[in-house]
């Protein structure tokens, strides 16, 4: 048996401005122009190419603001079906180099190529091959970070974007990592960042040179020790190919702000139906259900409930969603967006249904399975809760 | 106000009264324990839903009435040395001393303390041990989800000399019948009381052979239930809502029956359930002479075990939440369990057996709904 190599070789492959690149490739007239994916007066920017980013446009920014910043930019309606098609093919390319592929989203993945090096060359050689195949077969570019851990590989790919490649050798990790701002560390969100700044820790180096005990005191056991480890470039997470989706969510921005609880609840029901149908299609169940509410002033709140037993039913989930919404006691606050998210996903096989005393043996669950089948055959929305069926105005005869 | 009390009696009274204090009451005066000194001492605590009262006998020098922080008093009482304890009101403070230990307690305003409901009319008497055992057998099946308040209760159905206690969280149902001595031999009434309150009462009222059960008339606006044991009382508001009809859920007959020794069954369940999360079902395969337990599936950890049992009927393959099953096996409180089945998707009925060959005891039933795999 071959000796286990001292260091793993992990690639983080990330498409450059994925949605925008796909749009450019499909419509060559867009080439060289500022392209923004995200449409509708009230939507948000999903992706912007590098020409558009020069105007300061960033993902998650309201489309209306992006339009003001770059009136000349071309705004493209997102085509999710097309993105998953391209994504599927990209993942196939990855799989040709190693079975250890852990997709993070449609357009990025970790690849553990430690075992492929003997056959296919060094991490750098493999990265070159992957980049050239993605470009020649899908017409889009990607950036690749190469390192001995997921954490450093991902940082590296972020530093060579767009269309680049950066390898961080194990003995160069600290040299690369320590000058970076703490906000670059995986897991440091705005809140932790603020906390670290309050402690006077701006760079990874400053973080690394703070005693572990001090960090634990300030940030709690889990975050404190995780950050300390990462600050020294220590990350032992494996690339796990079957990492299932962590959540399934559906959200809707209203065309105009809505304050009517009846309309809001109907939207919640529609989103719950959409999310749970996807959940059931993947034969998964969710342990945690959460809702998101964005007010007219963009203030956003989330509420969630973790259930004793994982569920996958539309009605069951909607009951939870409804309770979460009602507990907010919004009193006709104007809402811009509502969303439903199913989290803590577990496979359907390990999530059997706890039967309920006195309930009919064929209940909502069976009805919903039938709805899913009808939708698969006749298109989604062919059978839906009565409250979601569009009213047909009577016509004069 | 001044009195000298014995440590043990004080701790006993204070613990009972502090039981009904809420950590986040709607008014700060409810953080307090009221100490009313006349020719005896009456201590009271309440969270407005439940009130507890205890009489404390002590050497009284000066009568008076004070409201002191309840949890603090309970902690001080517990930590005092085993010496007579002197309470003295000094302005707005209460001095507590025992031997060389001295504490000063601030007082709260007596005037802001709400008027608590009076103990309702006495309805009858129950043997304390019977009552306590029955409550612990039933309360285990009550729901814990406060968004379904009705299911957090124990339904108390009184018909002449029989009280039927029932609780369900929709996944299991526990039903227990006990007899009592009602004052009115023709009494027919029902009430619903929070399971947590009842368990607390049952655990603390031991030491006296009988508990007096008090019930407000169904004609009064406020529905109250009271328990009186010696010099301790508890008064609690009943839960609103209608308890689901449960009697028709009890299957009239069964197609298969098993008898299993409880302690070996419990040990096996615990071992086999080790490999999984506690919400993952435990599969039980009953067939003649054998019970096979399995947990885990696919590439996860797995465990199996086999027990020798008595079984009659077609073999059955059924899955349960292991926690719910364990709860039921423990609540049975007998060396053997009798399990009656009517199908793999129908409730199984657990009842106790004092010996492998004796008849199942009909006064307690634990219905458990199985789990079903998504196809």
The overall average pLDDT of chain A, rounded, is: 86
What would you call the quaternary organization? heterodimer
Question: Could you tell me the radius of gyration of chain B in angstroms?
Answer: 25 Å
- Which CATH class of the largest domain in chain A? Alpha Beta
- Please indicate the count of domains of chain A: 3
Radius of gyration of chain A: 24 Å
Q: Largest interface, with Cβ-Cβ < 8 Å? A: A-B, 19 and 26 residues
Description:
Chain A has helices spanning 18-26, 50-53, 63-69, 80-95, 117-120, 123-138, 150-159, 173-177, 190-198, 204-208, 212-219, 221-231, 261-281, 314-327, 364-378, and strands at residues 10-15, 35-37, 47-48, 74-76, 101-105, 108-112, 142-147, 165-167, 247-258, 284-295, 300-311, 335-347, 353-354. Chain A has 397 residues and is of the alpha+beta class. In chain A, strand 7 (142-147), helix 7 (150-159) and strand 8 (165-167) form a beta-alpha-beta unit. The radius of gyration of chain A is 24 Å and the shape is globular. Chain A starts with 9 loop residues before the first strand and ends in a 19-residue tail after the last helix. In chain A, 34% of the residues are buried. Chain B is an alpha+beta fold. Chain B folds into three domains: 2-112, Roll (DNA Polymerase III, Chain A, domain 2), CATH 3.10.150; 121-247, DNA Polymerase III, subunit A, domain 2 (DNA Polymerase III, Chain A, domain 2, Roll), CATH 3.10.150; 250-368, DNA Polymerase III, subunit A, domain 2 (DNA Polymerase III, Chain A, domain 2), CATH 3.10.150. Chain B has six helices and 28 strands. Chain B has helices spanning 7-18, 70-79, 128-139, 195-204, 262-273, 322-332, and strands at residues 2-5, 32-37, 41-46, 50-56, 59-62, 64-69, 85-90, 93-98, 101-106, 122-127, 153-159, 162-168, 172-179, 181-182, 188-194, 210-215, 224-229, 232-237, 256-261, 282-287, 290-295, 303-308, 310-312, 316-320, 336-341, 348-353, 364-368, 371-372. Chain B has a nine-stranded antiparallel beta sheet. In chain B, helix 1 packs antiparallel against helix 2 (70-79). The model of chain B has no long low-confidence stretch (mean pLDDT 91). The interface between A and B is medium-sized, with 19 and 26 residues.
């Amino acid at each position: 048996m071959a000796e286990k190599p001292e260091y793993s070789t992990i690639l983080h492959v990330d498409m450059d401005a994925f949605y925008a690149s796909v749009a450019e490739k499909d419509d060559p007239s867009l080439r060289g122009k500022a392209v923004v994916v995200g449409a509708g007066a009230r939507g948000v920017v999903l992706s912007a190419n590098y020409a558009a980013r020069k105007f300061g446009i960033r993902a998650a920014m309201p489309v209306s603001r992006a339009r003001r910043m770059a009136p000349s930019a071309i705004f493209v309606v997102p085509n999710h079906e097309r993105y998953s098609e391209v994504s599927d093919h990209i993942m196939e390319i990855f799989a040709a180099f190693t079975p250890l592929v852990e997709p993070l989203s449609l357009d990025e993945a970790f690849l553990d190529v430690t075992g492929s090096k003997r056959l296919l060359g060094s991490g750098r050689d493999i990265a070159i091959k992957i980049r050239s195949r993605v470009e020649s077969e899908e017409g889009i570019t990607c950036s690749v970070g190469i390192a001995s851990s997921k954490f450093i590989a991902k940082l590296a790919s972020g530093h060579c974007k767009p269309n680049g490649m950066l390898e961080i050798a194990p003995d160069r990790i600290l040299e690369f990592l320590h000058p970076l701002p703490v906000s670059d560390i995986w897991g440091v969100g705005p809140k932790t960042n603020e906390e670290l700044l309050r402690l006077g820790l701006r760079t990874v180096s400053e973080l690394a040179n703070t005693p572990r005990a001090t960090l634990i005191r300030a940030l709690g056991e889990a975050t404190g020790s995780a950050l300390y480890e990462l600050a020294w470039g220590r990350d032992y997470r494996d690339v796990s190919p079957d990492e299932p989706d962590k959540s399934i969510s559906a959200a809707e921005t209203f065309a105009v702000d809505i304050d009517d609880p009846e309309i809001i609840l109907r939207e919640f029901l529609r989103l719950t139906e959409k999310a749970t149908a996807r959940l059931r299609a993947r034969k998964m169940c969710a342990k945690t259900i959460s809702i998101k509410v964005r007010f007219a002033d963009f203030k956003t709140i989330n509420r969630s409930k973790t259930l004793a037993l994982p569920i996958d039913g539309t009605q069951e989930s909607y009951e939870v969603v409804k309770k979460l919404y009602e507990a907010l006691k919004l009193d006709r606050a104007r809402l811009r967006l509502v969303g439903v998210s199913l989290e803590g996903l577990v496979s359907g096989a390990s999530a059997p249904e706890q039967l309920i005393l006195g309930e009919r043996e064929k209940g909502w669950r069976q009805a919903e399975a039938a709805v899913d089948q009808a939708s698969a055959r006749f298109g989604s929305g062919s059978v839906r809760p009565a409250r979601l069926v569009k009213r047909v105005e009577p016509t004069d005869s | 106000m001044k009195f000298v009390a014995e440590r043990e009696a004080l701790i006993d009274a204070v613990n009972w009264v502090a039981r009904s204090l809420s950590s986040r009451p709607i008014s700060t005066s409810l953080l307090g324990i009221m100490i009313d000194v006349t020719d005896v001492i009456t201590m009271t605590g309440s969270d407005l839903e439940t009130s507890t009262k205890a009489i404390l006998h002590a050497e009284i020098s000066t009568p008076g009435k004070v409201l002191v922080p309840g949890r603090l008093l309970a902690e001080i009482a517990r930590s005092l040395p085993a010496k007579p304890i002197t309470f003295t009101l000094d302005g707005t403070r209460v001095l507590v001393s025992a031997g060389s230990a001295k504490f000063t307690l601030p007082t709260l305003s007596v005037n802001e303390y709400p008027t608590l409901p009076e103990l309702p009319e006495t309805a009858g008497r129950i043997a304390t041990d019977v009552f306590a055992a029955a409550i612990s057998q039933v309360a285990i099946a009550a729901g814990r989800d406060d968004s379904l308040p009705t299911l957090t209760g124990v339904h108390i159905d009184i018909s002449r000399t029989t009280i039927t206690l029932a609780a369900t969280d929709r996944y299991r149902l526990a039903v227990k019948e006990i007899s009592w001595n009602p004052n009115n031999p023709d009494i027919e009434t029902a009430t619903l009381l929070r399971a947590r309150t009842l368990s607390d009462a049952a655990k603390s009222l031991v030491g006296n052979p009988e508990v007096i059960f008090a019930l407000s008339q169904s004609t009064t606006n406020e529905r109250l239930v009271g328990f009186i044991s010696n010099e301790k009382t508890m008064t609690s508001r009943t839960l609103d809502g209608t308890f689901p009809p449960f009697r028709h859920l009890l299957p009239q007959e069964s197609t298969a029956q098993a008898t299993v020794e409880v302690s070996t069954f419990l040990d096996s369940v615990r071992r086999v359930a080790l490999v999984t999360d506690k919400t993952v079902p435990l599969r039980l395969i009953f067939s003649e002479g054998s019970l096979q337990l399995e947990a885990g599936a696919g590439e996860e950890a797995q465990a199996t075990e086999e027990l020798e049992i008595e079984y009659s009927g077609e073999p059955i393959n059924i899955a349960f939440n292991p926690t719910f099953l364990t709860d039921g096996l423990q609540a049975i409180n007998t060396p053997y369990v009798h399990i009656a089945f009517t199908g793999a998707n129908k409730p199984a009925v657990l009842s106790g057996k004092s010996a492998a060959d004796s008849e199942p005891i009909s006064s307690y039933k634990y219905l458990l709904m199985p789990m079903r795999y998504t196809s």
